[in-house]
């Protein structure tokens, strides 16, 4: 079996016999006023973070949700886009499509605002999306892309870029690793299916998103979530996995490279009322301004004694650079 076949078989099994807290820590799913999440859907929460960023889901966006699982995040997105076909859920595993459809039926009984027509579940594959170019506002995937080997991940990211409208957003939540995972674990197909051995480092992960063409990346959350300990996994050192929630924008690539926002700010502390770097960054004296990592480094180098640059908070959702 190829690793993709192993993945499909694995998710077929856990669609038919749900495993609570299967691949990631158990966390409380995002709660929203008037949203009731059916119990079987909660039991099939096979995720480690969230892709549903509530403060920007205005104007009923069309969302392509890849790897539907039990349908939890599809339902959460539907909460914001209450119209037929607003959420297109792609899932290659038949048993998972059936489970998601069952769970969404229950959701319709428990939530007066929800109609199953809001989520269209389609057979399909992240590596070959059955969707036309530039047709969706948001593409979301949670704990799927880390499973892919790098060549397939590159293809999945290119597919995401293709189907997003200009300005569209790729909303991802995936494990990343603080150190490279050794080959013997990377090649373990079942561990890969479990989201335990396919994770890339933060640098590798963000570089592949940039390589696909995304000109801006925002890190929404980064937190430790699981340890691969040396005894269980036959390692020289323990390896910490972190969960990373990010939003990447299909915007033009800046000439000097992608903007990555990790929560850094720049604060002008010189003698003038403001500082203008003549590159569209104006800092009012004493006021913290959100900057991408590239701009943070440039400003710090330009005026090391007058501009204070604060560190990455790994939380940023403030929109554009100053
Ligand atoms: C770890 S689960 C995550 C499910 C869901 N996103 C959630 O947050 O609970 C991965 C999902 O991706 C699906 N999947 C597996 N291979 C896929 C592929 N090549 N393309 C799209 N989805 C795939 C699995 O069947 C499963 O539903």
TrEMBL record:
Keywords: Methyltransferase, Transferase. The keyword Methyltransferase applies. GO terms for molecular function: S-adenosylmethionine-dependent methyltransferase activity. It comes from Nostoc azollae (strain 0708) (Anabaena azollae (strain 0708)). Residues 64-170 form the Methyltransferase type domain. InterPro entries: Methyltransf_11, Methyltransf_Superfamily, SAM-dependent_MTases_sf. It comes from the Bacteria. Pfam families: Methyltransf_11. One of its GO terms (biological process) is methylation. This is Methyltransferase type 11.
